[in-house]
Design goal:
There is one protein chain. The chain has 18 helices and ten strands. By secondary structure, it is an alpha/beta fold. The protein has a ten-stranded mixed β-sheet with strand order 1-10-9-8-7-2-6-3-5-4, sandwiched between helices. α15 (264-279) links the parallel β7 and β8. The chain is elongated.
């Protein structure tokens, strides 16, 4: 698979930026996804876009890459003097509990109910430990930012592999929790008795809950039942938000970029992500191959008649890279058309600052 050098302004990535409202970056761990996310946001800002860069990567790679402390609140990235941007980049790292709290305030029927929910011990445990909340809270944050007129483009740096797929395929995880038949059966007595007041419920709870209360402890069931009663309208609001987000992700202005690397492991992971993405009904728009052997190095090694071991290693690496890239490309093109394939050469120098990351855009090639 040959690579053709292009001017950054003619890059398919720039075309994707121009026509997109949301760009979701997907990929395995260690392939340069966070760096590619930052690069995309910076290129967009250089094009004059007002960009919100959100990381839902629990490893906090975005903060490390930018070298500044970030929080759940968007904060403008301060550019070094040598970087000239006509737009801006504001960045944030998802704070799971803070987003959960804001959703409770948004959907609770009253401020008093919201405060009772936030103070409840079940909520305090669930908001940080419930299975799957990171991906769900990311979707909630996405919905919030999509409604913000201060930004032209949202760039999402997602968790690696299956975590990112959870982000895309489980928008209603909390609504599903409420709809579970076992949970409904457990709290049915509490919901029914709420018509007569909780004091009446608690006085007859042993009879209502039967043997379950004896096993688990009636006080725990009372606390849990009360919590779910408080949360009914909030969870219904979560469900509605989930439906809105599904629609948002399926808009033509939402783009998906798969970041990969020319290794067997990354190729297998990228193939899996692609299949799951299409199974969920989303269209892939571009693939970025990071850490490729520089074309000049590959050309010199392949054209050399010398039999030096170092040259043999470079030739073998180049052949292996081409095999991985070609296999992934053929897999994608079997079922998806109009996908842009881009590559970035490997750089032995660390990308330690924003200027270096922005210069990556000048090295993009079309595969």
């Amino acid at each position: 698979m040959s690579a053709v050098a292009i001017d950054e302004t003619d890059s398919p990535l720039c075309s994707l930026i121009e026509r997109s409202r949301i760009i979701v970056m997907l990929g395995a761990g260690g392939v340069g996804k966070t760096t590619s996310s930052i690069m995309t946001a910076l290129i967009a800002a250089r094009m004059g876009r007002r960009v919100a860069l959100l990381s839902i990567d629990p490893a906090k790679r975005l903060a490390a890459a930018l070298g500044i402390p970030l929080s759940n609140h968007l904060r403008q990235i301060l550019m070094p003097p040598e970087v000239r941007l006509s737009g801006i980049v504001d960045a944030a790292i998802l704070d799971q509990k803070a987003v959960f709290d804001s959703m409770v305030y948004k959907h609770a029927p009253s401020m008093e109910t919201a405060e009772r929910i936030l103070a409840h011990p079940v909520y305090q445990a669930a908001s940080t430990n419930l299975a799957g909340p990171l991906e769900y809270m990311a979707l909630a944050k996405l919905e919030e930012l999509a409604e913000n007129p201060n930004y032209d483009l949202l760039v999402l740096d997602t968790p690696p592999d299956t975590q990112a797929l959870d982000f895309l395929t489980r928008p209603n995880v909390l609504a599903g929790f409420m709809e579970n038949r076992v949970m409904t059966w457990l709290i049915r007595p509490f919901i029914a008795a709420s018509r007569f007041g909780l004091s009446r419920l608690f006085s007859v709870s042993e009879r209502l809950m039967g043997g379950i209360a004896k096993v688990t402890g009636v006080s725990a069931l009372q606390s849990f039942g009360e919590f779910l009663m408080l949360m009914q309208e909030v969870i219904q609001g979560f469900h509605k938000s989930g439906e809105n987000i599904v629609g948002l992700l399926h808009r033509s202005s939402t783009a998906f970029v798969l970041v990969s690397a020319p290794t067997e492991a990354a190729g297998r992971s990228s193939t899996g992500i692609y299949h799951e993405l299409t199974k969920a009904g989303y269209d892939l728009n571009a693939v970025i191959f990071n850490k490729c052997l520089p074309a000049a190095v590959a050309e010199n090694a392949c054209n050399s008649d010398q039999g030096h071991p170092a040259l043999d290693i470079l030739r073998d690496r180049f052949k292996g890279e081409q095999r991985v890239l070609q296999t992934l490309r053929q897999t994608i093109e079997k079922t998806t058309q109009n996908v842009s394939f881009l590559s970035l050469d490997d750089d032995p120098q660390p990308l330690g600052n924003l200027d270096a990351i922005l210069k990556l855009g000048a090295r993009i090639k079309i595969c």
